[in-house]
Amino acid sequence: MELLLIRHAEPVEEHTPDGSPADPALTERGRAQSEALARWLAREGLDVLVSSPARRAQETAAAVALLLGKDVEIENRVRDANADADSYVPLEADRKGDRAGYQARLASYRKSPRLTSIAERVNEALDDWTTRLRGGRLAVFCHGSVINVFAARVLGLGNAAFLEADYASAHRFLISRKGIRSVKSLNETAYLLSD
Predict the structure, then answer these.
(1) What range defines the domain where residue 101 resides?
(2) Pick from 46, 63, 77, 117: most CB atoms within 10 A?
């Protein structure tokens, strides 16, 4: 079977004054990315669409679902490592503006126990879905942390933050009937070239 892990498209920066979890929507650019992604995935013959409960992931999945005429199933176990944070500032915002701040934030993220703490739930969820859909094609709309955790597992890496997944990027994995996992591609974004 083929598993596509798709990072959500570009969201707005969000800070919640009451301390509740930030759940940002997509930017205008993010909506355009979702539409480009949907046009590309329309040719893929996907069987099932699954999304993180985060608004940015659901909005990305919605564009694909609309074009394919499919429903999206919500899977709480593929939520972001920072799902409870009261702010969402894309790493990309630091990368464009404050390079030193970006490097410091990335180093802190790579050392954070958050990625290790989500590994069990993420891998359990993806194993459940891929077992249920043997021989099919599954697209999961999620987060960079989820993609890193699963890809690190498949590649046998100790570093669960080795990949900077682009917005609306696709990451393909093949899973044999015996459960052998392999990477087909990482960080596909050619469909966003006009972006």
Answers:
(1) 2-192
(2) 63
